[in-house]
Amino acid sequence: MTQSNIQPSNRTSFPIPLKAVIIDLDGTLLDTAQDLALAANAMLRELHMAELPLSTIQSFIGKGVPKLVKRTLTNSPDDEPDPALFEQALPIYERCYAENLHVYTRPYPGVIEGLEQLKQSGFRLICITNKTEIFTLPLLHKTGLRDYFELVLSGDSLPKRKPDPLPLLHACKHFSVLPNAALLIGDSSNDAIAARAAGCHIFCVPYGYNEGHDVHKLDCDAVVNSIVEANSLITCQRDA
Ligand SMILES: O=C(O)COP(=O)(O)O
Ligand SMILES: [Mg+2]
């Protein structure tokens, strides 16, 4: 671990007395982009619309399934599709994704090892994702990650999702952990904004999606190359 990974503008003074580590799913634990794109393009074909490149669909990941469908239909990050078209498209997308949940999706390098180490280090482990619960839980089971987490919160588990701080605050309250004793590891501005708003620490990984933007520009405490690196940073700081 090199000190250069610690952001100069960070608000965290090390060592961090952590009790809980919260980890994002898409783009942090699992590389889901190919299967999300496969389902998005299958939906477009059924609607007799032109398919989109993987890189474009990848930049639409981050704010949950309904937003991914809207972005795919309009080929834009913020435009609203015709409501009738969206109503027709959403169940098609959900069916296509349910059928292709685990074709190419795999944990990123260092994820299993990193989760093992975090567990050994004694942290409470929580997964918080904007993905819809009907997809989150089967995917965590299929990839062998489910049992690492004491709590899993999906995009539709609570009234608000990331970047709102609600899921993080809910998790902290659930385990009676103060927000500043919790670290979120994520890949996007949704994670960084939610963590700051909740008062949690935030590390980002550079290999995820971040809606097509450079993760180094995010307000986070460190950019770590893997979950293993996140564990070494917090445990070596803790043991220092
Ligand atoms: O489903 C999404 O849009 C992103 O999910 P994430 O919060 O796990 O990155
Ligand atoms: Mg993510």
From TrEMBL:
Cofactor: Mg(2+)
GO biological process: carbohydrate metabolic process; DNA repair; glycolate biosynthetic process
Protein name as it appears in the record: Phosphoglycolate phosphatase
Alphabetically ordered keywords of this record: Carbohydrate metabolism, Hydrolase, Magnesium, Metal-binding
Active site positions: 24
EC category: hydrolase
Pathway: Organic acid metabolism; glycolate biosynthesis; glycolate from 2-phosphoglycolate: step 1/1
EC numbers: 3.1.3.18
Record-stated family: Belongs to the HAD-like hydrolase superfamily. CbbY/CbbZ/Gph/YieH family.
CC terms in the record's Gene Ontology section: cytosol
Pfam family for this entry, one: HAD_2
Keyword Transferase in annotation: no
Protein's UniProt keywords contain Protease: no
CDD domains xrefs: HAD_PGPase
Record function comment: Specifically catalyzes the dephosphorylation of 2-phosphoglycolate. Is involved in the dissimilation of the intracellular 2-phosphoglycolate formed during the DNA repair of 3'-phosphoglycolate ends, a major class of DNA lesions induced by oxidative stress.
InterPro entries xrefs: HAD-like_hydrolase_sf, HAD-like_sf, HAD-SF_hydro_IA, HAD_2, HAD_sf, PGP-like_dom2, PGPase_prok
GO MF term list: metal ion binding; phosphoglycolate phosphatase activity
Positions annotated to bind Mg(2+): 24, 26, 187
Catalytically driven reaction(s): 2-phosphoglycolate + H2O = glycolate + phosphate
